[in-house]
Amino acid sequence: MNNDFSFEKLEVYKRSLKFSIELCKLAAKFPYAYSRIRDQLIGAAISIPLNIAEGSGRFGKKEKANFYKYSRASVFECVPILTICYELGLISDEELLHYKDEASELSKMLNGLIKSTK
């Protein structure tokens, strides 16, 4: 498969895509009463790889950096949603720790991507 989508080669993109898919699958199991939380988590999660992809398609460094910052902000948004899910008994403490660790790693990787635009 040959294409012009260079972002697909980025480790941070691959990892964020995996993270967002895991969170979508997790959220899909939430009871209907928690549909707002489910939708919020899915929205934040899928914004991470989407903004990496969109940023990579921009020509200006400042524009690229802005989309990578939006991606990092979406990572940060996932953390309190996951904490709320934990407090409501929707996820286990092991799941919370796992996803918070992964969010931390993604944040660091995105910081590196942002710095690379300077």
Topology overview:
Layout: H1 11-28, H2 35-56, H3 61-87, H4 93-115
Helix pairs in contact: 1-2, 1-4, 2-3, 3-4
Brief overview, please?
The protein has helices at residues 11-28, 35-56, 61-87, 93-115. The chain has 118 residues and is an all-alpha fold.
Description:
This protein has helices at residues 11-28, 35-56, 61-87, 93-115. The chain is mainly alpha-helical. Helix 1 runs antiparallel to helix 4.
Name some characteristics of this structure.
de novo design (two linked rop proteins); 76% helix; mainly alpha; 0% strand; 118 residues; single chain
CATH superfamily annotation: 23S rRNA-intervening sequence
Spans where pLDDT lies below 50 across 5 or more residues: none
| Number of helices, counting only DSSP H or I runs of 4 residues or more | 4
**Biggest pleated sheet:** none
Q: Which architecture per CATH?
A: Up-down Bundle
Mean pLDDT: 95
Number of domains: 1
SS-based structural class?
A: mainly alpha
**H and E string:** HHHH
Shape: elongated
Report the count of strand segments.
0
Instruction: Just give the CATH class.
Output: Mainly Alpha
DSSP strand (E) fraction?
under 5%
Amount of helix: over 70%
What is the third-level CATH name, the topology?
Answer: de novo design (two linked rop proteins)
Could you tell me how far the N terminus lies from the C terminus, measured between alpha carbons in angstroms? 31 Å
Oligomer: single chain
Cα Rg: 15 Å
